[in-house]
């Protein structure tokens, strides 16, 4: 599939403001801005295996499109939600367990980049990844 491969973060747009809106403290925001995040995606049909590795943690996530699962962000925020494939866009809709607010994430491939966009409580951000 299009998303298969290893992706290394190249740059971010409005990511620190997004993390601030999410309630991430200033120290963690500064560290996360330079986390060297690498995502490896393996898709087989509607099943995904995702490895995330950064300066702070290494985790592996398995999910099936349309099936709700639990997930913890690097700062410990607990989420519940699911991913769906809408055309060429992988869209994740998650709900924070602590306050019930929605977090939406999309992944789209444009050329040699994967653009991961976030929306939380009126704040948008992007992280742009290069194949690597």
TrEMBL record:
Domain named Cytosolic fatty-acid binding proteins: residues: 5-22
Pfam families in the record: Lipocalin
Keywords annotated in UniProt: Retinol-binding, Transport, Vitamin A
InterPro entries: Calycin, Fatty_acid-bd, ILBP, Lipocln_cytosolic_FA-bd_dom
PROSITE patterns reported in the protein's UniProt record: FABP
Tagged with keyword Transport: yes
GO terms for MF: retinal binding; retinol binding
Keyword Transport set for record: yes
Record Gene3D superfamilies: 2.40.128.20
Function of the protein: Cytosolic CRABPs may regulate the access of retinoic acid to the nuclear retinoic acid receptors.
Family under the similarity heading: Belongs to the calycin superfamily. Fatty-acid binding protein (FABP) family.
PANTHER family in the cross-refs: FATTY ACID BINDING PROTEIN
UniProt protein name: Cellular retinoic acid-binding protein 1
Annotated source species: Oryzias latipes (Japanese rice fish)
